[in-house]
Amino acid sequence: MLYLAQHRRTPLGRWALLTALVAASACFTSLIVVFLGLASHGPEPPAQASTIPASVPTKAPRLTVGTVPGVHTLAKSVPVRLRIPAIGVNAPITEVGLNANDTVQVPPLTNHNLAGWYKYGPSPGQQGPSVLLGHVDSVTGASVFFYLKDLHKGDKIYVKLDDGKTATFLVDGLQRVSKTTFPTQDVYGKLGYAGLRIITCGGAFDAATGHYYDNIIVYAHLN
């Protein structure tokens, strides 16, 4: 099976009481996040799953608060559905938290059309980086973020919230990164606006360990 890599979170400074404090806060600025591949035992994925367009850079797109004037943040509300028309995504969202080993949980691999929201971070539309993650595929076929790498700057992302509102985001750009050099600050660092990060796997596949070498990250801001 071709799993999404998990985040491992290491506490720093005032975050020493990891579980209690993370559960009570939406701030990621004092956390280190490392992506780890989970082993699997399936065949190699199709070439389409591993191939990343040359247009996807290795550096994160830059966005400042001044580029999104007049945009107000939303109240905290649990996200329930994700729509990305440009790549045909229309999926429910489940909440994910922490595993016993301090890695971030991922959605069950058996449900192809499901995204996960990291519930200890900002909800979509709140100030800061809200994080969604999901699988790219498994041995039985494509999963929710199989075509994530095909998004482009300006594409729209819609996140329906439990309070009935829909947070609309515009894609700022994509980034391809090695899991061994995951850009923690770019993804989880403090933001002066409401941001969205969507993460999945991609790039070359290691058949011996059963995981991808890279992550694909989408950066977006509240429209």
Provide the descriptors you would attach to this structure in a database record.
mainly beta; Sortase, Chain: A; two-stranded antiparallel ribbon; 3 helices
Care to describe what's here?
This protein has 223 residues and is mostly beta strands. It has one domain: Sortase, Chain: A. 7% of the residues lie in helices and 38% in strands. The protein contains 3 helices and 12 strands; from the N terminus they run E-H-E-H-E-E-E-E-E-E-E-E-H-E-E. The strands form 3 sheets. It has an 8-stranded mixed barrel. It has a two-stranded antiparallel sheet with strand order 1-2. Strands 7-8 form a two-stranded antiparallel ribbon. A hairpin with a 4-residue loop joins strand 11 and strand 12. The longest helix is centred in the N-terminal third of the chain and has 7 residues. About 15% of the residues have low confidence.
